[in-house]
Design a protein that fits this description.
- The structure is a single chain.
- The protein is α+β, with helices and mostly antiparallel strands.
- The protein folds into two domains: 115 residues, Outer membrane efflux proteins (OEP); 353 residues, Outer membrane efflux proteins (OEP).
- The chain is 62% helix and 10% strand.
- The protein contains eleven helices and four strands.
- It has a four-stranded antiparallel β-sheet.
- It is elongated, with a radius of gyration of 40 Å.
- The chain starts with a helix and ends in a 7-residue tail after the last helix.
């Protein structure tokens, strides 16, 4: 009888709640949403190139053909601490999805309990216990034990998909975190490759400087002999000596740069300093392959940062739906069943020791909805922010590709002209040295020619490095380097 009265009371509460909410429905007004629709459209082609073949679809193991470089990239992808930290962030985001999935399912709790209670004599319960015997001739004990075994279920009925939209938003953020990992991967691959080519360029500069020091040392010996013969002054000897010392000093500077670049690569590879295996003699003969860039719309699939921004935008849209649902009623259901008795030997007696309850509640905000409104507007503002971020990602990707393509063409022309300059100045060294020996040229002409020749060869090496770096950066700008 007691359980029937309890169920009737809960049913009455549910009915009253429904009537109240129905009466208030006509006065409820949802705040106006802040909307920004549409995303800037990307151009159809890059500089009128219509070929859909895209280099970004090639895995990095095939894009780079140097086995030493590939070994470094493989080591970095396994050991780089920052990349592994991003992997852990992906796993954290995945647990958030699992947590959200559980929120819209019923919660079931099972447990046991033991307790004791003593009611005061001059209270309703105390007076009843004093006058009503448990059995003929047996009164209530002063302290009444309590034993309980049971379970209960609670469930928020997801009428407005609030919980499922929150789950979907968490899933999109998890996917966006994984896209962030892919973007980190393509960044790491390109940084290793660029540093590797920088190291090869420094090796070639060091070799050029050593060759030039040898030439200048020989020239210094000739000047000393000419001074002994009275053909030149001490000034010429000092000038040649100063040039030799200058280049010897530069030698140590380049050696230090080589050490630092090696250690940078080792750091990216997640290991302590050690020699980097490379074949720098082939550096000048390296010719960057032509890169097929496809069409701009392919960036939406290949660039992880664009896909990350897109998923963040989807999550922001779902957040609006979640905050919007907070204005609507929430239906909560709960039920419980078990056994309860004051003596363990009666605990499983049926039906005397059976305990049951069932309840339902329907609740909606009526007064002071400012906090909910604030969250709703904040979700709208964040959604607009996500749209701008998505647009910026697309625009940035397109500009990067266009800039790299233009740079590729200009660097090729620059390298061809630099090669001609080096040839001319290399011949000038032989000519100026020959003329100086026969006293037909001033020693300053020899020094300036040698200096110009070294600088031009350095510039040629730097231009080659820029070509290779740009080739790598086109691959990165297209979204290459993360695919397995």
């Amino acid at each position: 009888m007691m359980h029937k009265n309890r169920l009737s009371r809960y049913a009455g509460i549910v009915c009253i709640s429904s009537l109240v909410l129905t009466a208030c429905k006509s006065t409820f007004k949802l705040p106006t949403a802040i909307n920004k629709t549409g995303v800037i459209a990307s151009p159809q082609t890059y500089n009128n190139l219509t070929d859909t073949t895209n280099e970004a679809n090639i895995v990095w193991q095939k894009f780079f053909t140097d086995p030493n470089l590939n070994a470094l990239i493989d080591t970095a992808l396994r050991n780089n601490q920052e990349y592994n930290m991003v992997l852990q962030e992906v796993l954290v985001a995945k647990t958030e999805v699992q947590s959200r999935k559980g929120e819209y399912l019923p919660f079931l709790n099972v447990g046991t309990g033991v307790g004791a209670e003593k009611s005061a004599r001059y209270t309703r319960n105390g007076a009843v216990e004093a006058n009503v015997p448990i059995k003929p001739g047996q009164q209530f004990p002063g302290v009444l034990p309590d034993f309980l075994v049971g379970g209960n279920v609670s469930w928020e009925v997801d009428i407005w998909r609030k919980l499922r939209n929150a789950r979907d938003a968490a899933n999109q953020r998890y996917l966006s975190t994984d896209e962030g990992r892919k973007f980190m991967k393509t960044q790491l691959v390109s940084e290793i490759a660029n540093s590797y080519y920088e190291l090869m360029a420094l090796d070639n500069k060091l070799e050029i400087l050593k060759q030039n020091i040898e030439i200048q040392t020989n020239a210094l010996q000739i000047v000393k002999l000419q001074k002994t013969a009275g053909m030149v002054t001490e000034l010429a000897v000092r000038k040649f000596e100063a040039e030799v010392y200058k280049n010897q000093s530069s030698l140590y500077y380049i050696q230090q740069l080589i050490i630092q670049t090696e250690n940078k690569i080792n750091f990216l590879a997640g290991r302590y300093p050690q020699p980097i295996q490379r074949n720098s003699q082939s550096f000048t003969s390296l010719v960057p392959d032509s890169v097929s860039v496809g069409i701009p719309s392919q960036l939406l699939d290949n660039r992880p940062d664009i896909k990350q921004a897109e998923m963040q935008l989807i999550a922001a849209n779902l957040d609006i739906k979640v905050t919007k649902a907070n204005f609507y009623p929430t239906l909560m259901l709960s039920a419980g069943a078990g056994f309860q008795a004051f003596n363990p030997k009666y605990l499983l007696a049926t039906p005397e020791s059976i305990l049951m309850n069932l309840a339902g509640g329907l609740v909606a905000p009526l007064v002071n909805r400012n906090a909910i409104k604030a969250k709703y507007h904040a979700a709208n503002y964040k959604q607009v922010q996500a749209i701008y971020n998505y647009e910026r990602s697309i625009l940035n990707a397109y500009v990067e590709v266009v800039n790299r393509l233009s740079n590729s063409a200009n660097l090729k022309k620059s390298y061809d002209l630099k090669s001609l300059q080096v040839q001319a100045l290399t011949q000038s060294i032989t000519i100026s040295t020959s003329l100086f020996k026969s006293a037909q040229a001033d020693y300053m002409e020899v020094l300036m020619t040698q200096r110009d020749a070294v600088e031009s060869r350095f510039e040629l090496i730097e231009t080659k490095q820029l070509q290779l770096n740009n080739w790598v950066n086109i691959y990165k700008a297209l979204g290459g380097g993360w695919k397995q």
